Give the backbone structure.
Amino acid sequence: MKFLAILTGKLIIIAGNIMQRGSSLPGKLALKIDKNLLSKLKYPEIRIAVTGSSGKGSTSSLIAKVLKDNGYKVSYNDMGSNLTWGCTTSFLRKSSLTGKIKADVLVIEIDERDTKEMFPNLRPTHIVITNLTKDQPPRQHHIDNVYKDILKGITPNSKIVTNIDEPYLRSFERDTKNEMIYFSLEKNKYSYKNQIFENLNTYYCPYCKGKLEYEYYNFETLGKYKCTKCDFKNENAKVIGSNLDLENETLEINDNKLNIGGNFLYHAYNTLASFTTLKDVGLDEDKIIKSINKFNDYSTYSYEKNNKVYFPMSCKAENATTYNGVIFKTIMNKEKKDIIIGWKEISRRYAHFDVSWLYDIEFELLNSDSLNKVYAVGIDAENIKKRLVLAGIPEDKIIMAESIPEIKDMVNKDEVKYVYGILNFDYIDPFNETFKEEL
């Protein structure tokens, strides 16, 4: 059964290559032929699995690129989905007919809810967990459900690489005996003393349920904390980033400057996760930094036209933390601005009309004198407007539209220099096509 499953999957992959189409179908059919196929494959000695609510794609991609740049032969699912079928297709692409994956290192991005099936078969040497946040409510329901699924799949000898600045992630330390490898970001010029976000994932110590006290916040619940009842606190991270500079897209590790590949806080944390994993795998620190700086070269998201500066920002729908991160970036600019919020579709995985996640986002932070207008665009323009009104934003500042081209003239006539797009992936290209034009 194993041989037939692999052969069938490979033939479908070849057919897909001829038609220039990639899909998870080869993995799906291979698993139908042999449901135990994943346990029968021979994986490389180093196996790095990356999961989390967001950032897993960027983090796994950077890890794979650095490894390749340093001479490793890498198997990575950059062509398929991160669900079980897609991951299986990725394995088949790199495997022999006997099931041996021809690589030195396996790097695999895995959807959080599929980890319970994938981890026991893959037995990762390293499990990288970028974050766990409120995400896709109709599918995930609650963050604890996601945590429990990941926990079910964790194998005894896997090292867990994660962010010590997020207290919720310390639950893995409590519930497993696995080696924990932590990274952290020091206090920086964007940190703040008093909490500005209300709908948070974590308030209490995962050990004794005591209230957490913060010395500073980097964002939401990320920061320097300690429990008011027990000795639980943020300390002893293996890798610490310092001197964060989002304008120049850099941070420092051990006095070495590192490019983070973007000007958002999550770029810094994704880069720290990648660096920490690569260092534990055994790569020389100087070589890691050299490669990361090559692949994370300066990549500003803004451009200028008609005396305006446009900021198209891709924002994962159904994830309040992602939205809050973009809002946090937006309010750093105190100048007068327009903001465009919208999407064509919420998800390509399933059809639904849930917008409950809008009420976990701190749109209230946009309600200031620096806000000129908000354009609510797309299929949920009316729902976006209702949420903005609840946030206290005056109705006369909110304009609804069916598409971005429809608001082009209005935006260009507004007497503001800055235009921010808080957009799902499906509206990034329309935003740029509308405002960037020939540039």
Summary: The radius of gyration is 22 Å. The first strand starts at residue 46 and ends at 51.
